[in-house]
Amino acid sequence: MDVFSDPTNFETYKVGFLWILKLTAAGTVGSVVLGVVLAAMRVSPIPVLRGFGTGWVNLFRNTPLTLIVFFCYFGLYSALGLELSDDIDRNNYWLGVVGLSVYTAAFVCEAIRSGINTVPAGQAEAARAIGMSFLQTLTVVILPQAARAVVAPLGSIFIALAKNSTIVGTIGLMESSSAMKELINANGDAVVPIFLVFAGTFALVLIPTGYLFGWLANRLAVKR
Amino acid sequence: MSTNTDAVLYDHPGPRAKTRNLILTVVFGLALLALLWWIYRKFDEKGQWAGPLWRPFLEGSTWTDYILPGLWSTVSAAAVAMVFSLIFGLVFSVGRLSDHWWVSVPAGVVVEFFRAVPLLLMMFFIFFGIPFLTESPMPPFWAVVIGLTLYNGSVLAEAFRAGIRSVPRGQSEAGYAIGMRKTDVMREILVPQAARAMLPVIVSQLVVLVKDTALGYIIGYTELLQDGVNTLGANFGNTVAAAIVAVFIYVALNASLTFFAGYLERRTRRTGRAPRRTTPPGALTPVGGATAVEPQG
């Protein structure tokens, strides 16, 4: 533990996890917004939108996140000149958020779509029988019920998102895994304590979060 | 009445709905084309469609020198890690179901820990940290394989545990009734039935493994992203083109694995070997089990 009593080392640790927190927060917002829109597209009556949603999901779900984040930096930023901020750290951060969002949105979309599938057909039929339109059926009847069914899968998606944020380190953001690498290289005599502190922080936050989502899913589940 | 969501959420379109859908199709179709055109223009402005950037992909040497060796490293790391993950998953799922707390609690702690730690953090520790302890360098291949095994093995352990618990109680009771011991019931009755039901999940976990090998790029393992995109892109100055080609390879590989998982799932369901799935009565379609829902790297 001596390593972390040095203020600079502790600062590295703190900054690393702050980046993870910010990446996870922005990535969650981005991926949920995108994912809901994509899911609505995939169940809509318009073939063009269905095709777009399906294409998106198949493309991003099957591509490694590392490659997506790599492309955000070397493709969008270096080659195509997309600059999201003047500050280099801010710029890398937003590029990482873009990568995390487009990738995670594919999983959010699929979770919501399978949530829609847990709603009994009678619900949609009843809504149509009283003359509701597609958008009304979806937003007033189906989605509120589906939302309860997707709490558990969305929970594991957000937990995975928090872990995946470490990949943004590839493009030079000093997030926690890069911070750990730096501390390990500087303090070869304290490798195990450093790893345990970093891994322990993740475990301490993410394991209870997992149980929280499980409890919440159980509580909110529609009893049929 | 088909049991498809699309057919239930809205009526069969009448004349008015048909016109409306047609208008919307045209509007969104044009918007989509405009988006694609915009992307094309952006690439064009930066000269990314220039011939010299794409020509290397028409030459055999580009494939044999960069892309295929990279792809081979990706596939071999994923395959080796898969075998180890299966063993790890089996051991720890059975361990977690043990009646002895001194087996089940440590097994649970190990599984929960490795599931919660980011794979990249794990790989960094194995690759940069372990050599300080053993005083010998860690080959990147093994850093990737060990990292993948610990993470995916833990994920599979949880999946197996759920699978073993989904085997109907009567099966193990029948086993005990004819005088089998706990170990025999687990080995002869529960695991084989669970394994058959878990086959689609195992195959879709392979998709996750193939994608996660790309993390090896960060610790210098020469897999597809390193060889086929980074090195190739540096030599020909066509990183964007190389990345696009690599995306196609990954998608083709993983989509065929996903398709295979779906095929296995349909087959097990048809022959009725799988333990009954928990589909809510009257649900539109059974909740897909074969798709990897968690977005691992």
Features:
heterodimer, A: 224 residues, mainly alpha, B: mainly alpha, MetI-like fold, flat
CATH architecture of chain B: Orthogonal Bundle
Q: Give the total of beta strands of chain B.
A: 0
- The Rg value of chain A, from CA coordinates, equals 21 Å
Radius of gyration of chain B (CA) equals 24 Å
Average pLDDT for all residues of chain B: 85
| Proportion of residues in extended strands of chain B | under 5%
Portion of residues in helices of chain B?
over 70%
Q: How many structural domains of chain B? A: 1
Q: If interface size is counted as residues with C-beta under 8 Å from the partner's C-beta, which chains form the largest one?
A: A-B, 81 and 74 residues
Distance between the termini of chain A: 52 Å
- Broad CATH class of chain B: Mainly Alpha
- Characterize the biggest β-sheet of chain A: none
CATH homology superfamily of chain A: MetI-like
- What's the quaternary structure here? heterodimer
In terms of DSSP E residues, the strand content of chain A is under 5%
At CATH level 3, the topology of chain B is MetI-like fold
| Unreliable segments of 5+ consecutive residues of chain B | 277-293
What global shape of chain A is seen? flat
Largest sheet of chain B: none
* Span of the ends, CA to CA of chain B: 40 Å
Domain ABC transmembrane type-1 (chain A): 17-208
Subcellular location (chain A): Cell membrane
Membrane topology (chain A): Multi-pass membrane protein
Keywords (chain A): Amino-acid transport, Cell membrane, Membrane, Transmembrane, Transmembrane helix, Transport
Describe this structure in words.
The complex is a heterodimer of chains A (224) and B (297). Chain A has one domain: MetI-like fold (Orthogonal Bundle). Chain A contains ten helices and no strands. Chain A has helices spanning 2-5, 7-42, 47-61, 65-79, 88-117, 121-129, 134-149, 151-164, 176-186, 191-220. In chain A, helix 4 (65-79) crosses helix 5. Chain A is flat. Chain A starts with a helix and ends with a helix. The mean pLDDT of chain A is 91. With 297 residues, chain B is mostly helical. Chain B has a single domain (62-271), classed as MetI-like (MetI-like fold, Orthogonal Bundle), CATH 1.10.3720.10. Chain B has eleven helices and no strands. Chain B has helices at 5-9, 15-45, 51-54, 60-96, 101-116, 119-134, 140-165, 169-177, 182-212, 224-236, 239-271. In chain B, helix 4 packs across helix 7. Chain B is flat and about 75 Å long. Chains A and B meet through helix 3, helix 4, helix 5, helix 6 and helix 7 of A and helix 1, helix 2, helix 5, helix 6 and helix 9 of B. Chain B: Residues 71-257 form the ABC transmembrane type-1 domain. Chain B: Residues 277-286 have a biased composition (Low complexity). Chain B: Residues 270-297 are annotated as: Disordered.
